[in-house]
Amino acid sequence: MQLQRSEMHRFEARGEPFVYLVPSAAVFQLDPISAAVLDGLNGEARDARHIVDELSDRFAADDVTTTLEELVNVRALRHEGSPSNEVPLDLPPEEMPLQNLVLNVTSKCNLSCGYCYEYGDDRLSEASAMPDMMSDETARQSVDLLFEEAGPSPVVHLTFFGGETLLNLRVLKEATHYARAKGAEVGKRVEIGLTTNATLLKPDVITWLIDNDIGVTVSIDGPKEMQDRFRIFQSGEGSYGVIEPKVRELLRRHRRRAIGARVTLTQQNLDVQRIFRHLSDDVGFLEVGFAPVTTSTCRDYAIDEDGYVRMLGAFEELGHEFVEATVAGRHHAFSNVKETIEEIHKGVSKAYPCGAGLGLLGVSTGGDVGLCHRFAGSGDHTLGSVTEGIDKSGQRQFLEEHHIAYKPDCHSCWARPLCSGGCYHEAQTRYGSTKSPNLHYCDWIRSWTHTCLELYGELATRAPGYLGRLDA
Amino acid sequence: MKHLQPINRKAERIETLVEDNDIVALQDDGANIPLGCSFVFQPGWEADSKGGTAGLCQPVERDLFDCYITCFWPAHVPDLYNHAPDWTSKCGSAAKDWRKIDLIFP
Question: Which is the catalytic residue, given B20, B22, B28, B63?
Answer without folding.
Answer: B63
